[in-house]
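Input/output pair, single chain:
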Amino acid sequence: MDFPKRGEIWLVLLEPIVGSEIGKTRPAVVISNNKNNQFSDTITVIPLTSKTAKVYPFEALLPKEDTGLIKDSKAKSNQIRTVDKRRLVNFLGSASEERLQEIEQALLIHLGISLARNK
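Output:
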């Protein structure tokens, strides 16, 4: 059986929400590793929005040419969440390797993780 792969963009049902969580049924990029994605009932995704006027350092711009989506979008790493695979509605596209690296960098910034530690 096939499974969602890291870097793929899926339409995901994010309702119900609480407070300021991003909601609706919207595109999200799969960020969890493929072993998890294959064997777990849950996956980790970063929701996307088409509101791209301002892109913060903890977000990554995803031009439609690099994703297969119909609009430019941005990945909101501050809204990362783990969801049951049953919330996946359908496959929409994939982030290019370059864009996936930018999403990873935005996620590190959001989580306050620095890979280059001073000694």
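Residues 97-111 form the longest helix (15 residues). Helices lie at 34-39, 97-111.
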